[in-house]
Amino acid sequence: MTALPGKKALGHIRVLDLTRVLAGPWCAQNLADLGADVIKVERPGAGDDTRSWGPPYLRDADGNDTSEAAYYLAANRGKRSITLDIASPEGQQIVRELARQSDVVLENYKVGQLKKYGLDYASLKQEKPDLVYCSITGFGQTGPYAQRAGYDFIIQGMGGFMSITGERDDLPGGGPQKAGVAISDLMTGMYATIAVMAALTHRDRTGEGQYIDMALLDVQVAMLANMNTNYLASGNPPRRWGNAHPNIVPYQTFATSDGHIIVAVGNDGQYRRFVEAGGRPDLVADERFATNPMRVRHRDTLVPLLADMVATKTKQQWIDALEAAGVPCGPINNLDEVFDNPQVVARGMRVDLPHPTGAIVKLVGSPMKMSATPPQHDMSPPLLGQHTDDVLRDVLGRNDQQIEALRSKRVV
């Protein structure tokens, strides 16, 4: 989907991004994809922590590693990077000036840390009354844990996610399991994106800015969705079921002769067609397996029989047979299979952008498909401080002599 020049949903918005690592940068990248001018403020000489979280690193045209870690590249597309020592009075003044020229400030410092620099919401609101200011922390600005540092892994455990994720405790390998990606960070970034855009809409209607207090723990609790309400309705905490389903059999993964598939049988007719495709119609005739309630009751007997059946064919043979039979199924792809998948290719989920190092950086495109103002991927993740002079000159009106004076003091 190609956007017309200038057709950017948030092309009128400037975001001052004081965040690092993942939750805040993920929010800022969403806003950048939608057209916002995002100015990323980084520590001189070091930058965002994730710049050094490698290998792997971006490789240049000759196949040599650059200093740009793939982790950093994943969450910082479309931004301008400036380096700034916000612990210095001159750096704090520049942040205040940039805030006056911005619509949104994002930050993920520890609770109260920016207040000592005069860069908290109460202070910056005096500079710009209609400012939207979003703070992202592990536990929020209030409550007994507010001063604690919040890490995604810990939040997944504290927020209940790991109590329902992992193999059944009575099976080999049973026990709590974290997600393969930092889901509480990512989901906090997504919720923060929604909150920022809602606050901007409110500002545009009323002229009133506001403060947004986002906490990873709040988000982790919220995103358990029906598992929360199952508990609240019954008083019984849900338990881990691995890749199985507590109420439906078979609804799980199976190992084929060359990989794994997911079989999601939703009714008795689909079950019949599944076992017939595997050459085991006797597994329908057996009254222990004739209906879903009976299959749930006898899952420990049935599932090993189905596992033996599935293991006789390849992954693709099963996918072809079950799709033809109308049985819901799917492969468990690794990432090379994901990016070769014709549907993923057709949807444009990989984007290649030229990088200042001369390399081509391969990134995942935004999943937001919009007819009038689709996301645009026209800026690669920036080098550390790549846009410092441009921002100081064009946004704040500093001249070359003033910029050099800041650089000599190591403010930038």
List the helices and strands and how they pair.
Layout: E1 14-18, H1 23-33, E2 37-42, E3 57-59, E4 65-69, H2 70-73, E5 79-83, H3 89-100, E6 104-107, H4 121-127, E7 132-137, H5 152-158, H6 183-206, E8 210-215, H7 216-222, H8 225-234, E9 251-255, E10 260-264, H9 268-277, H10 282-285, H11 292-297, H12 299-310, H13 315-325, E11 329-331, H14 335-340, H15 342-346, E12 350-354, E13 360-364, H16 388-394, H17 400-408
Parallel strand pairs: 1-2, 1-6, 2-5, 6-7, 7-8
Antiparallel strand pairs: 3-4, 9-10, 10-11, 12-13
What brief labels describe this structure?
17 helices; elongated; CoA-Trfase_III_dom_1_sf; CoA-transferase activity; CoA transferase; three-stranded antiparallel β-sheet; alpha/beta; six-stranded parallel β-sheet
Which structural class is indicated by helix and strand composition?
alpha/beta
Placed side by side, the strands forming the largest sheet appear as 5-2-1-6-7-8
Number of strands: 13
CATH superfamily of the largest domain: Crotonobetainyl-coa:carnitine coa-transferase, domain 1
Average pLDDT across residues?
95
Tally of contiguous helical segments: 17
Tell me the β content.
Answer: 15-25%
Describe the structure.
- The protein is of the alpha/beta class and 412 residues long.
- It has 2 domains: 14-223 and 342-408, Rossmann fold; 251-255 and 260-331, formyl-coa transferase, domain 3.
- It has helices at 23-33, 70-73, 89-100, 121-127, 152-158, 183-206, 216-222, 225-234, 268-277, 282-285, 292-297, 299-310, 315-325, 335-340, 342-346, 388-394, 400-408, and strands at residues 14-18, 37-42, 57-59, 65-69, 79-83, 104-107, 132-137, 210-215, 251-255, 260-264, 329-331, 350-354, 360-364.
- A 6-stranded parallel β-sheet has the order 5-2-1-6-7-8, sandwiched between helices.
- Strand 12 (350-354) and strand 13 form a beta hairpin.
- Helix 1 packs across helix 6 (183-206) and helix 9 (268-277) packs across helix 13.
- The longest helix is centred in the middle third of the chain and has 24 residues, at 183-206.
- It starts with 13 loop residues before the first strand and ends with a helix.
- The mean pLDDT is 95.
